[in-house]
Amino acid sequence: MEKIIESTELTKTFGDFTAVNKITFDVKKGEIFGFLGANGAGKSTAMRMLTGLLSPTSGAATVAGYDVFTEQEKIKKNIGYMSQKFSLYNDLTLMENITFYGGIYGLSNTQIKERGEKLIERLDLGNIKKKLLKEVPLGWKQKIAFSVATLHNPKVVFLDEPTGGVDPITRRQFWEMIYEKADQGMTVFVTTHYMDEAEYCHRISMMVHGEIHGYGTPKELKKEFNAQNMDEVFIHLARGDQYNLK
């Protein structure tokens, strides 16, 4: 399968501190790839390098065929991004947010109108499209933010802790939206510290102290450590056990 992300010994240091240490992995087109680890493990720093928001210190990586060192602006035009904090404007309405971000993504006025109307219809948001987003519940905000991040049909969408703070039902609904996009051929790269969400991913890498200690499918990793769930796998990896599957 086509590789949409490739990373080889990608590293980021801040002075004497190494936040991300020589991580090597790849992500295939249409794959849901989980980037897991505890808070402070280096997940967000790695994602910021891959999205062109932060320059790496060393190593190599490409996203959608573009180099993270020299083609950061081209990367930004070919990806979607949703931060762990709500990434839309609370003081704008739903339609105003769609219009604003559609313009940033380079969509025409006609495309913005058509895709905006489809988004509102698909999520059944007609009754709140004129409300300010600060009046909308968090769970709905996150689903709206994901839909807006994929409005321009990017090759890859990066989701940074997208389900943090939302209820279990909304988390499940959010993952249904992720599967829908993956079925359409979009690659989804998602960071999370919820170990149960690893089960929803095709493959995962597990970060411990800035390094990848586990890499493969959830089934492969559970089998290797004779674990019943991903929490048990993470305990093994946090102890220093390592297992990498190509």
Task: Walk me through what this model shows.
Helix content is 34%, strand content 27%. It has 246 residues and is an alpha/beta fold. It folds into two domains: 3-78 and 155-244, P-loop containing nucleotide triphosphate hydrolases (Rossmann fold, 3-Layer(aba) Sandwich), CATH 3.40.50.300; 87-153, no CATH class. The protein has a seven-stranded mixed beta sheet, sandwiched between helices. Strands 2-1-4-5 form a four-stranded antiparallel beta sheet. Helix 3 (94-104) crosses helix 4. The radius of gyration is 18 Å and the shape is globular. One of its GO terms (molecular function) is ATP binding. Residues 5-234 form the ABC transporter domain.
How large, in whole angstroms, is the Cα Rg?
Answer: 18 Å
Global mean pLDDT: 90
Beta content: 25-35%
Structure class: alpha/beta
First-residue to last-residue Cα separation: 13 Å
Specify the overall morphology: globular
- Tally of contiguous helical segments: 8
CATH architecture of the largest domain: 3-Layer(aba) Sandwich
Major beta sheet, specifics?
7 strands, mixed
Q: What helical percentage do the residues reach?
A: 25-40%
The ordered H/E elements are EEEHEEHEHHHEHEEEHHE
Mind telling me the CATH superfamily name of the largest domain? P-loop containing nucleotide triphosphate hydrolases
| Major sheet: arrangement of strands | 6-7-8-3-9-10-11
Count of the domains: 2
The CATH topology of the largest domain turns out to be Rossmann fold
CATH class of the largest domain: Alpha Beta
